[in-house]
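Input record, target 12 of the design panel.
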């Protein structure tokens, strides 16, 4: 009997994994579930099925050796345990978009055909990385994006409003009023609100302190026909009982809605403060993807189309979905075929990008490949993953990334191992910094990309050349100045700069720039604690150094040393 290790993550990546998991169980396979977090809302579909899930940190090399192969919903090359394992790793990421990087696996099942650009004539840098990282791989469609078999029913007189977790940023109060106006405009309909996050959810994809429900709950009264869904539910189940779905342009929920043959309105142009996710380039990207859909309406105008909305032909989604039927079965079939005909014999398929309707005729073995080659490739892909995770933040079309690609491709295979990885990533960072500076004119669009440019000038020892008043990254600029002053022994100056840093970051309701990165915040606490120590303000210093020490699980040597000295002086 086939024995498979399933690795879960968080967010929407668990949704296709669940359908593939159910298909494996249906075939009588033995499947063990491990997860990178047990706190994610999307993991509830596994809990509700009474599936046992263990944390990935409890997994050992000996346990991995017992499985035939691994299926993962998220990237796992960050752990040496998986990078060095002689077990083939299949991966099926959820996103159909080019601006969300597909994650690396030994063999990747992709939602769309990524061998061609998603938006005609618009090849974005991350698309180049994605094709490399998904080869070998196969276009299959999304297991969670299959055309629904929801039966035709009588009108339910129900409308579902979907809140995107990260959009709009900074205007959730206005969105709450918008939802109320919709409910008031449709008094004969029940209007349900499906949240991306519930108040109190902590393990979210991006920092977001603002929640739609908090604004709705703070009102003295709500329309009697407005219902707030107070638990994480599966969208397909919600779609079965509604006549119309209303969603913003910043969510992929419209795909599932259209596949379920439900009427829909995508509202556009809603006021949104600047954020990591939404700059002019990314808005243009989304308009390009959904531009052929007749259901896009300016948010002020949707009241003209309530409560009917629009019916959209699922054929309009062909650009972003390779297939919409039998996807989970196709993926499980392909994993079984590759295992039986290749992996179980310690041979590997040629590194090509296949299609699910033709791979049986095209897939051939590459007898030159060994497990050592597969492991070297995983280390190389770790560099591609790192580079793509930085490039994707920029949303810049036409950015020249050739220097980065040449560097990664030029590293000899025998340099790809645990001993060299840290140095390889360090050198890759240098290439990225140079790339940012070379493309500086294109990095003036949001606070996030200039913050990376600020980092690049700092790391390249060219900080004096950086002109912050032309950009929008005051918090990160203040953080870099604090580090410079700390290194010069100017501890009062360090604290003044960090005050500017924390004044902005602590008040951010969402992720604006690299300054909001948890790692940067933790190190800001370190520098503040260390500066306070040198000024003999030990009680205050201990607070900030303890935050750093806890975040690093006691592995930040300098923070631990300062804490030891404080204890000795107490």
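The sequence produced for target 12 reads:
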């Amino acid at each position: 009997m086939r024995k498979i290790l399933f690795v879960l993550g968080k967010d929407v990546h668990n949704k296709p994994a669940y359908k593939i998991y159910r298909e494996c169980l249906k075939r009588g396979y033995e499947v063990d579930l491990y997860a990178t977090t047990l706190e994610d809302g999307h993991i509830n579909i596994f809990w509700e099925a009474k599936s046992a899930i263990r944390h990935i940190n409890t997994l050992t090399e000996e346990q991995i050796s017992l499985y035939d192969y691994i299926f993962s919903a998220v990237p796992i090359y960050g752990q040496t345990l998986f990078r060095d394992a002689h077990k083939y790793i299949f991966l099926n990421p959820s996103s159909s978009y080019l601006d969300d990087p597909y994650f690396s696996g030994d063999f990747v099942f992709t939602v769309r055909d990524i061998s061609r650009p998603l938006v005609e004539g618009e090849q974005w840098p991350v698309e180049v990385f994605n094709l490399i990282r998904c080869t070998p791989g196969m276009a299959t469609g999304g297991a969670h994006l299959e055309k629904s078999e929801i039966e035709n029913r009588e009108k339910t007189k129900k409308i579902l409003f979907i809140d995107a977790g990260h959009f709009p940023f900074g205007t959730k109060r206005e969105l709450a009023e918008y939802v109320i106006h919709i409910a008031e405009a449709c008094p004969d309909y029940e209007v349900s609100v499906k949240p991306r996050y519930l108040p109190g959810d902590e393990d979210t994809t991006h920092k977001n302190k603002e929640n739609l429900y908090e604004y709705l709950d703070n009102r003295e009264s709500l329309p009697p026909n407005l219902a707030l869904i107070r638990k994480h539910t599966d969208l397909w189940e919600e779609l079965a009982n509604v006549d119309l779905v209303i969603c913003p342009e910043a969510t992929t929920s419209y795909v599932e809605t259209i596949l379920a043959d439900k009427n829909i309105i995508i509202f556009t142009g809603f006021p949104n403060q600047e954020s990591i996710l939404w700059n002019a380039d990314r808005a243009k990207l989304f308009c390009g993807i959904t531009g052929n859909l007749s259901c896009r309406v300016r948010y002020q105008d949707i009241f003209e189309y309530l409560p009917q909305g629009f019916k959209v032909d699922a054929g309009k989604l062909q650009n972003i979905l390779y297939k919409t039927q039998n996807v989970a079965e196709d993926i499980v079939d392909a994993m079984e075929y590759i295992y039986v005909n290749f992996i179980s014999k310690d041979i590997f398929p040629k590194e090509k990008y296949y299609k699910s309707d033709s791979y049986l005729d095209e897939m051939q073995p590459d007898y030159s490949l060994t497990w050592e080659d597969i492991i070297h490739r995983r280390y190389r892909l770790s560099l591609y993953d790192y580079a793509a995770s930085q490039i994707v933040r920029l949303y810049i079309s036409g950015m020249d990334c050739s220097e980065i690609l040449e560097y990664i491709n030029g590293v000899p295979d025998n340099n790809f191992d645990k001993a060299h990885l840290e140095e390889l990533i360090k050198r890759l960072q240098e290439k990225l910094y140079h790339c940012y500076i070379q493309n500086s004119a294109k990095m003036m669009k949001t606070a996030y990309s200039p913050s990376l440019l600020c980092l690049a000038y700092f790391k390249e020892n060219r900080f004096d050349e950086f002109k912050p008043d032309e950009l929008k990254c005051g918090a990160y600029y203040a953080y870099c100045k604090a580090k410079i002053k700390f290194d010069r022994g100017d501890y009062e100056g360090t604290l003044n700069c960090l005050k500017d840093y924390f004044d902005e970051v602590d008040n951010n309701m969402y992720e604006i720039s690299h300054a909001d990165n948890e790692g940067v915040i933790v190190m800001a606490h370190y520098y503040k604690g260390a500066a306070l120590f040198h000024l003999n303000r030990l009680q205050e210093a201990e607070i900030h150094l303890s935050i750093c020490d806890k975040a690093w699980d006691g592995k930040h040597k300098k923070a631990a040393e300062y804490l030891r000295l404080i204890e000795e002086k107490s």
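The longest strand covers residues 3-8.
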